[in-house]
Amino acid sequence: MSVGTAFHDRTAPLNRKMQWREWAGFYAASVYADFHDIEYNAIREAAALIDVSPLFKYRVSGPDAERLVDRVITRDATKLKIGAVYYTPWCDEHGKVVDDGTVHRLSPTEFRWTAADPQLRWLRMNAAGLHVTVEDVSESLAALALQGPQSRAVLEAATGESFADLGYFRRRGSKIGAVALDVSRTGYTGDLGYELWLPEEAAAEVWDALVAAGTAHGIRPAGMLALDVTRLEAGLILLEVDYTSARQAMNPEQNYSPFEIGLGRLVTFDKADFVGKRALEAERRRGGPGRRLVGLTLDWYGIEGLFAAQGLPPAVSPTVDRSAVPVFAPGRGQVGKATSRGWSPILKQAIALASVPPAYEKAGSQLEVEWTVEGRRGRVRATVVELPFLDLPRKRA
After folding, report:
1. Average pLDDT of 284-306?
2. What is the spatial distance between Cα 356 and Cα 337, in angstroms, rounded to a whole number?
3. pTM of the model
4. What domains sit in the chain, N to C, each tagged with a CATH number?
């Protein structure tokens, strides 16, 4: 049975349509407003509050904390400085991705680790022989994403201090009223934004303070539908949609290495041994994996033509479609699949993330994506483009 997060007393009255979904055993709002485009606009034009408390969160501490982190993730943990944050995948012994998330360095001997799936057993298994403690703080630590071009102004108004010097993927402690919290320059929207980590008992107080501070900046709560659109525009992958966790894979096709899902840049080979390193080195010697993550823009006139053939006006869903559909090479059979598809309001373009062979990963490559209208399957031309689809300078400014 799902339960409310620490912010539920504030989010539930705002969710008048009672549009909830389950996220790791918690209620997560799909949408608060009559339609999610209002919340999308808040993320892209003003400021939005997104309850991300259902993330799994772990405190890794002790003299060997760094050694454990370095043993598990594909990046070099010895180079993660205090006050910095890594986005990283971690793999099983076959070099296949178990999950991806963030690792925050809080002190020389303490880290905060976030993940989409439960990782406690995996971390403790890999901690064998190390002087380290792994504690699940998922329920005691609330998390709130403050995203959008006005997010810095809202945060500064609520805390009474400047955040102009907090760089991208950096973190530091702060206070809202008497509540001590940690602020990281991170998010899942591809926009300027922050994530706030705070004691669950202070959730309502912090929410109220941010809403009060954000009123002049057009702040709104935003749900999962709006978040899904922004993460697709930002070219960000989603577990069990764009790839399958190695722990859930039922066949070899469902196993993905970091190089297959656009995370190869986050693999450091010249570091201490980590789980999956030998397998990834072997993959590299073979010339890399047989499929790659790409971005696709879909031809509008092709979509329009398929609807016209059925005597219908064109219609594209405003929500992200997470069902995989075939990708074809022109004049050939299926060569891959599109995993996340949707309409970008800011780009005025239908876009998709897809998995295709290396021969088609170059920008400008021409492909076709299956598109169904009234039960009739057709194909729409698609062009491979560089990711992310939307790269806002303010994200890093």
Report:
1. 97
2. 7
3. 0.97
4. 8-55+139-222 (3.30.1360.120), 252-256+290-385 (2.40.30.110)
